[in-house]
Amino acid sequence: MNNFFDEKQELFDRLDNVISTLPANPSSLMDILFEAQNIFGYLPQEVQSHIAKKLNMAPVEVYGVVSFYKSFSTVPTV
User: Fold this and answer.
1) Between 57 and which of 9, 52, 64, 72 could a Cys-Cys bridge form, CB atoms 3.0 to 4.6 Å apart?
2) What Cα–Cα distance (Å) separates residue 44 from each residue in 1, 39, 67, 71?
3) Strands (E), the chain
């Protein structure tokens, strides 16, 4: 039986699979953010930091994009 940490790791593995199919640079950020939100349901800080690291960006740069576009959410939807 999977526990919370296994399920969370599976979500990050799915995200990494998406990231691996795109160029690892800031031009892929929007596509990755949309996919990450589809996978996680929202974009918590941990996910944003993970994406920033994978794209060699500062987390604040990712947050700036997430907070600018209304289509992204940083809180889970009910």
Assistant:
1) 52
2) 25, 12, 11, 14
3) none
* Long-range residue pairs from 15-23, CB within 8 A, at least 24 positions apart, any chain: 15/39, 15/40, 15/47, 15/50, 15/51, 16/54, 19/51, 19/54, 19/55
Judge whether 29 and 55 are in contact, CB under 8 Å: yes
The single-letter code of the amino acid at 14 is R
Model confidence pLDDT, tens digit, residues 34-53: 999 999 999 999 999 999 99
**Tokens for 6?**
């296994």
pLDDT at residue 26 is higher than 70: yes
Band of residue 24 on the pLDDT scale cut at 50, 70, 90: confident
